[in-house]
Specification:
The complex is a heterotrimer of chains A (506), B (365) and C (383).
Chain A (H helix, E strand, L loop, with lengths): L6 H11 L6 E8 L5 E8 L5 H18 L4 H16 L5 E4 L2 H9 L2 E6 L5 E5 L28 H11 L5 E8 L5 E8 L5 H12 L9 H7 L12 E3 L2 H9 L3 E5 L5 E4 L3 H4 L4 H4 L2 H31 L6 H10 L7 H21 L2 H22 L4 H15 L4 H39 L1 E2 L2 E2 L55
Antiparallel strand pairs in A: 1-2, 2-4, 3-5, 4-5, 6-7, 7-9, 8-10, 9-10, 11-12
Helix pairs in contact in A: 5-8, 11-15, 11-16, 13-14, 13-15, 14-15
Chain B lengths: L9 H17 L2 H9 L3 H24 L6 H9 L1 H34 L5 H17 L2 H26 L16 H11 L22 H31 L6 H8 L11 H31 L4 H17 L4 H33 L7
Chain C lengths: L1 H15 L11 E3 L2 E6 L4 H10 L5 E8 L1 H5 L9 E8 L2 H11 L3 E3 L5 E4 L1 H5 L1 H13 L8 E4 L4 H6 L8 H11 L9 H11 L1 E10 L2 E11 L2 E6 L1 H10 L7 E6 L2 E19 L2 E16 L9 H34 L6 H8 L1 H6 L2 H7 E13 L5
Parallel strand pairs in C: 1-5, 2-6, 6-7, 13-14
Antiparallel strand pairs in C: 2-3, 3-4, 8-9, 9-10, 11-12, 12-13
Helix pairs in contact in C: 10-11
The chains are: A alpha+beta (506), B mainly alpha (365), C alpha/beta (383).
């Protein structure tokens, strides 16, 4: 609805929209020596930076008009430009012709200025709501590396990224998503590195979202993913600006969402979930070893209970003789079959894990593992389960924690149950069949057009340099090319001859 | 988009070929070779590889002329639609028969070694269900699966054979070259049964991202398969000796089972070596279902390939129940090979190639 | 579409009713050793059997571990195994009968040892059946050790070695430690030799003073027992095959007893044709350490050391080559069995010679000449 020249009409429309909004601060100020014109100023309490509003706007306007030497008629004609150019001493200024736009802006923390006789309104950006401030990352802990984390403030987050990439090619494309929430969402990317088709796809997916409110980046994550049936996450989520910046430089796109300290990184492949920032801060040998360890941990987290059932129940000839006797002996008085034991213990562990998340502070983490082991021990002594099962389940749980991204672990946790069921039906054959099904699913999954299991399965892609940052971590000076996320035309990121003193021998 | 749009790279196609043929072919190969040529059976393998290379050459030369056409479409271009339908239908039947026999063998051995009480139907459904799932996802998925599975197959296999070499007595191969050359030749021909799956080469051109070098890659892959088979045959012959190997149902599996691994971690790796066979059967069943559904779709003209995959399962099940026992399976495999196998490996491609040349069809390379 | 999904669901549910092969660990009876004996029914039982029309010929005994005792911290003591036995017409039917004697489902996947009793190896038919049953059973590994005894296998299994967990494990561990000093024979090798030449040498196990003694061998020709070899005689087989590391060989020389500990041995066989006979020359080279001499007497001082040592070496050479030829003669003439597998070697290395003769004749035509070289490397910690 358009703004009318009559101030009273505007005030009526404006205040109508904001009935029963107790935090609206408004004032009609008469201006001019003889109070010929008036202006109307309004903002929402605690959404604005009060100092700035009072100091730079109201104060300045009042002072200006007191000292003004313009004639009243002159004033009336040029009041808008006069106010705009001389009165308001801020850089962030906008004009608006539409009431809807004005309302949205006020709701976002701007101050609106209506002027009598002018069919335009001035929107002054005065955002200043209370914020948590930059704190340490809680979910992604590192030993060596920046400890900053994103917060809920949109601008803060984009600023944290800007600090790390000081290049004009870093673009921040903003849009508002959500009918009621009108949340600010931005696509942050490097214009010369990103693949244009992925960018277009991301934009179109975001534009297709028509929902009441986006309360958290998690909503966006689920609304733009490729395959909603899959238990595996297809978008990466992070709390750390250095990770986001690294991803942008690889040619990926970061989606920053207002009110959420977690940003999304797209596209995501399985390999991304296995990388942690401190891999790059440590020596390459230990980093490679730890990467391999993480892979094994991933495999254990999904397969170990199923494998135990398949071997112990269906094919005990595979294990060494004395081990089998010990296991059989320990199971003599146990009332449940092996499958039930495993399922019971697994469920108990999952419960403990969930409980651990809800409990505050240090209790939470400890409760998860230690509590599980203690309960397991008690169950063994009560004769409900055999000790080997406790060990198997504990090992599985611990392996799950070794993977850097918890969202991937949820995928493995679900798969674990699937493997257990099939193994208990058909033994080792069932175990392999379940692994095949999982693999088929993973290999057919794509994230924005990139196969989910790259780089493990794209042989020959990108000149065979992919292996350098996946299972092993090659020394930094060898990682010359950007990974396949990047536009192939701009893949070189390091000039090896000029980097460091590595090749020089004294 | 990075997706290859159902196209696979050269290495992926090579891996798929090796995965399809090697695992299932190697199982009885040493015994068959020894049946005809005694301790010189390994020479028969060399002969078989040469024959296989020759067939691959003919097949790729034919398919190279029509790099973007499926088998049905280029055979109808060459000799007209009705005959092409006949040939393709025969092909589909052949694939069904060989899959049925292979799956029957697989079922028998699973029942014997791993799961005694489980009904055959369940085992069959299990493996074909998962293979059908893989086939329905498209060629690209199969190619990527192949890349992962080949490591799962080759690495344990290599480790086991490496340990097995310690227990092998190479003197069992002596005396060399004392068998009749005719026997060796016959052994070469019959060893060709182990190269089942090679005829899929006729279908591969449309799926390759790099058509120029595909022929060379396929020949390399065939040589690799031949070499692997030769190596394993030599080891098996050396392990068992030419007499005992004739009594073994599945010599390669027995050999792997008997290898003593150092360290006490795995006592008897029976079920563990079955992994290798499970993966191979899964691979060739997936390939067979995929290609046969393509052919059926082309013949009938409409419908999605996934429907045909599902529909072929009951047919293959009934066919696989047909032989009475294992020896009949081997007999039937032999008969199938001599009739339809050779037809589709050599006779029909050769014939099509000649007609294509005479009618000057297809691209000149 | 929904109907198809429903049908698939139903099929899945049907499948899930299964788990056909699931046998919980504690309900499996792991058979560690297997004993096969012949069975002669007593009078009373014979008359009963004639009524049932089934004549039992085999007495199968198995040794089952007592897993609870093993799993307990002590590791088990006296009562850590049970031996069960049953009779039946065939080996497999007897095995089936034992199943009915135990609440657990018998599992032969962990079997380590099979002991063949006297009755079995003396009777060709029973022997054939026993070996066939062992071979065909897919659960039994081909690597189990076969032992022959001239007593009853049941007694061997019943024996409780002090401080050792289980007889079966005891025996197979025993072999692991003394691999090169006894004739290791597993099912696979046994069937190979039997199918090629019908004769084999099976290691012998005896009960001596309530302890198990492993050594010596049974000679089987044409699938039946033709005789027994003593420990010394079976040693010759080890020399021919290039084994023997770790053996201790005593001999006498100049009224002094010495013992040689063998560190390694090599053997090379060559065959020549001569006057319608096949001359086999075995070149055996043995090296070892001297373990025992006499204290302070004839101490090997520097000048005489070389001479003394070469005399000792010569004494050993004579001893061993005599032993080898002796054993071969026993095998050739008394037992008429090709225990040394010479015909097999002729076939491989000298095929032209092999072709001239029939398989059965070859053994008689062989004359064995053993040339042994012994080298003493060290004499222990003192001179």
């Amino acid at each position: 609805m358009n703004i009318s020249p009559s101030l009273d009409h505007n005030i009526l429309t404006f205040e109508n929209a904001f009935t029963n909004c107790g935090d609206l601060v408004k004032r009609k100020i008469p201006l001019g020596a003889n109070n010929e014109t008036s202006i109307y100023i309004a903002y929402l309490d605690m959404m604005v930076d009060r100092v700035m509003v009072e100091g730079s706007i109201v104060n300045r306007i009042m002072l200006l008009f007191r000292k003004s030497s313009l004639s009243p008629s002159d004033l009336k004609e040029n009041i808008f430009d006069y106010l705009k150019n001389k009165g308001i001493t801020t850089a962030d200024l906008q004009e608006s012709y539409d009431h809807q736009e004005v309302n949205t802006a006020v709701l976002s923390g701007d101050t609106v200025l209506f002027i009598d006789g002018v069919a335009k309104a001035i929107l002054i950006s005065t955002k200043g709501f209370p914020n948590r401030g930059i704190q340490a990352a809680e979910t992604e802990v590192v030993i060596q590396g920046s400890k900053e984390a994103f917060t809920e403030g949109f601008r803060f987050n984009t600023a944290l990224i800007r600090r790390r990439i000081r290049d004009t090619n870093l673009k921040i494309k903003q849009m508002k998503i959500g009918r009621c929430s009108k949340t600010d969402v931005a696509l942050v990317y490097m214009d010369n590195i990103v693949r244009k088709d992925i960018l277009k796809e991301a934009e179109s997916r975001l534009n297709n979202i028509d929902i009441d409110a986006i309360l958290d980046s998690g909503y966006i994550e689920q609304l733009i993913e490729d395959n909603w049936l899959s238990p595996f996450p297809q978008n990466q989520v992070t709390e750390r600006p250095d990770k986001a910046a690294a991803a942008i430089l690889e040619g990926r796109i970061v989606i920053v969402v207002d009110n959420s300290p977690f940003v999304l990184i797209i596209p995501a492949t399985l390999n991304c979930y296995y990388q942690a920032t401190e891999d790059y801060a440590q020596r390459w040998q230990i980093a490679s070893l730890i990467r391999i360890l993480r892979f094994i941990a991933g495999a254990i987290a999904a397969c170990l209970p199923g494998l135990y059932i398949a071997v112990a129940v269906y094919h005990p000839s595979m294990l060494p003789t004395l081990l089998i006797f010990k296991m059989a002996g320990a199971r003599q008085m146990v009332p449940f079959p092996a499958v039930v034991e495993i399922l019971l213990m697994e469920l108990t562990f999952e419960l403990l894990r969930e409980a651990g998340i809800r409990l505050p502070g240090p209790i939470g983490g400890t409760l998860g593992i230690v509590g599980g082991l203690i309960i397991g021990q008690a169950a063994v002594e009560a004769g409900l389960v055999s000790p080997i099962v406790v060990i198997v389940v504990a090992l599985t749980g611990i392996s799950g924690f070794a993977i850097p991204h918890f969202s991937l672990v949820t995928g493995f946790r679900l798969m674990k149950f699937f493997v257990i069921i099939l193994s208990s039906l058909l033994g080792l054959l069932g175990f392999w069949l379940s692994i095949f099904i999982i693999l088929i699913h993973l290999t057919s999954l794509k994230s924005f057009g990139i196969p989910y299991l790259s780089p493990y399965v794209g042989s020959g892609m990108n000149d065979r340099t992919e292996i350098r940052d996946s299972i092993l971590r090659f020394p930094l000076f060898m990682m010359i090319r950007r990974p396949f996320f990047a536009d192939p035309g701009n893949a070189q990121r390091m000039n090896p001859k000029k980097t460091g003193n590595i090749r020089k021998k004294e | 988009m990075l997706s290859y749009n159902d196209k696979a790279s050269l290495r992926q196609i090579q891996i798929l070929l090796v995965l399809d043929i090697f695992g299932t072919g190697i199982q009885v190969l040493p015994r068959r070779a020894a049946e005809y040529a005694g301790q010189d059976g390994w020479i028969a393998i060399i002969g078989a590889t040469l024959l296989a290379l020759f067939c691959v050459l003919i097949m790729t030369t034919l398919a190279k002329k029509f790099p973007d056409d499926s088998f049905f479409s280029y055979s109808s271009k060459i000799i007209g639609r009705p005959i092409a339908i006949l040939i393709s239908a025969g092909f589909v039947l052949k694939i069904f028969f060989s899959l049925a026999l292979e799956l029957r063998l697989f079922g028998e051995i699973i029942k014997e070694i791993m799961l005694g009480e489980t009904p055959y139907l369940v085992v069959f459904l299990g493996i074909t269900g998962v293979a059908a799932f893989a086939a329905s996802k498209g060629f690209e998925t199969r190619a990527r699966m192949g890349e992962i599975l080949i490591y799962l197959v080759l690495i344990p296999f290599t480790i086991l054979i490496a340990f097995g070499l310690f227990e092998v007595d190479f003197t069992n191969l002596l005396p060399v070259m004392t068998s009749d050359p005719q026997d060796i030749a016959r052994g070469s021909l019959w060893s060709g049964i182990s190269f089942t799956g090679l005829e899929f080469v006729l279908f591969l051109y449309p799926y390759s991202a790099n058509k120029k070098d595909l022929q060379k890659s396929l020949l390399h892959a065939t040589m690799l398969i031949g070499f692997l088979m030769l190596f394993i045959t030599i080891v098996a012959l050396a392990r068992f000796g030419p007499f005992r190997i004739l009594h073994q149902m599945w010599p390669v599996l027995e050999m792997l089972k008997m290898i003593r691994l150092p360290g006490a971690f795995v006592e008897r790796q029976d079920a563990f070596v079955m992994t290798f066979w499970i993966i191979s059967v899964f691979s060739i069943t997936g390939a067979g279902l995929f290609f046969s559904s393509l052919l059926t779709k082309d013949i009938i003209g409409k419908g999605k390939p996934s429907i045909y995959i599902l529909a072929s399962l009951p047919v293959i099940y009934i066919l696989s129940r047909f032989p009475k026992d294992i020896s009949m399976v081997y007999e039937l495999q032999g008969k199938l090979f001599i009739t339809m196998g050779i037809a589709y490996l050599f006779i029909i491609p050769f014939f099509l190639l000649i007609v294509a040349n005479l009618r000057r069809l297809g691209e000149k390379s | 579409m929904k109907n198809i999904v429903c049908i698939i669901w139903l099929v899945c549910c049907l499948c899930i009713t299964g788990c056909w092969d699931k046998v919980e660990l504690e309900s499996r009876g792991f058979v560690v050793s297997l004993g096969i004996d012949g069975y002669e029914a007593s009078e009373k039982e014979q008359s009963e059997q004639n009524k049932n029309d089934e004549q039992s010929r085999f007495n199968i005994s198995i040794s089952l571990p007592n897993v609870t005792a093993i799993a307990s911290p002590g590791g088990g003591g006296e009562e850590n195994k049970t031996v069960k036995s049953a009779v039946g017409r065939t080996v497999s039917s007897a095995m089936g009968k034992i199943d009915s004697l135990s609440s657990q489902k018998l599992f032969y996947g962990q079997t380590r040892v099979a002991v063949l009793g006297k009755d079995i190896i003396e009777d060709e038919q029973l022997f054939r059946e026993a070996i066939d049953a062992l071979q065909r059973n897919p659960e039994i590994s081909k690597k189990i050790i076969i032992l022959a005894t001239d007593e009853k296998a049941l007694d061997i299994l019943n024996m409780k070695p002090a401080n050792e967990p289980l007889t079966g494990i005891y025996i197979s561990n025993f072999y692991e430690n003394t691999k090169d000093t006894v004739l290791l024979l597993d099912l696979e090798k046994l069937t190979e030799r039997l199918s090629y030449s019908g004769c084999a040498i099976i290691l012998r196990v005896q009960l001596e003073n309530d302890e198990l003694k492993v050594g010596g061998a049974a000679v089987v020709k044409d699938l039946r027992l033709t005789g027994w070899l003593t420990e010394e005689e079976s040693r010759s087989y080890l020399w021919i095959t290039g084994k023997g590391k770790g053996m201790h060989i005593p001999t006498e020389q100049d009224n002094a007893y010495t013992t040689l500990k063998v560190n390694g041995s090599k053997s090379k066989l060559s065959f020549f044709e001569e006057n319608e006979q096949i001359l086999c020359r075995a070149d055996i080279s043995i090296e070892g350490n001297l373990e025992e001499y006499h204290f302070l007497q004839n101490a090997l001082d520097d000048d005489k050391r070389e001479a003394e040592l070469s005399e000792i070496e010569k004494a050993y050479e004579e001893l061993i080559s005599k032993e080898i030829v002796n054993t071969f003669n026993i095998l050739q003439n008394e037992y008429k069995a090709d225990g040394f597998e010479l015909s097999d070697k002729i076939r491989k290395f000298n095929y032209d010679i092999y072709r001239k003769y029939k398989k059965d004749e070859i053994l008689d035509k062989i004359i064995l000449e053993a040339k042994v070289t012994v080298k003493i490397h060290g004499t222990g910690s003192v001179m």
